[in-house]
Amino acid sequence: MIPVSLGIPMYKSEAFLPGLFETLRNLDPLPAEIVLLDDASPDASHELATAFAANAPLPVSVLRNETNQGIACGYNRLAATAQERWVHILDADDHPVEFDFYARVLRHLSDDVSAVVTSVQSNSLALRAGNAVLGALVPKHPPEWWPLLGSFATRSGVIYRRDALLAHPFPDPAYPGSDVVHLLTLRERSRITFDHHAHVFYNVHQGASSSQARDYSLYLSALQRFGTAARLAHKADLAVRRLGQIMDRS
User: Fold this and answer.
1) 2-249 sits in which CATH class?
2) For 136-163, how does the pLDDT look when each residue is reduced to its tens digit (9 = 90+)?
3) Which end of the chain, N or C, is surrounded by fewer C-beta atoms within 10 Å?
């Protein structure tokens, strides 16, 4: 097993869990543990998670919030609960693409990086086209200003060093783009690694946040504390991503 705790927040996730759990059963090698967190879902997410835990090929814990706490709180609770040195927080509607996903990232899990960012596959036409044209240009250790989340990766494809994540938790409450700001904060303190050969599938569907019109004013404000190159690059990336979201909704 790989020294990674896989944390999965769930909210109204029952439609995606059977497929996700089947994918997880087929991983080789497996992460060291899985922690499932039901954020007071009104559907059968908790029951499906409990059934999976009872027959899983690795240790699985199932947590439950009595009231809905929001996605950032869920991410931070999963990080605090994890037992391994590395934490992969995977949204329940996404999934690893390769059966040997964790073997591909293992060589990058070193003390001199705070996170390993894997590439993205998606049913989004805009994401597929952008990655086909530009994905190969991303360097293994991108400079701080280089945009990653949104165009080349999804937050579900980031494996965090747990101590770095605990020292710098996700902004709570979350806002559109807060995951990008969070990763930029980590990149100020330690380098990250980008892996072209491991992929997480980002599922754009009617309920996905990327399918909705979103207010990025807090994100644009938060970018002001970073350097000029990072601000300009991420603003340009946001403009491209918003165009892609319009294409996906049309």
Assistant:
1) alpha beta
2) 889 999 999 999 998 899 999 999 999 9
3) C
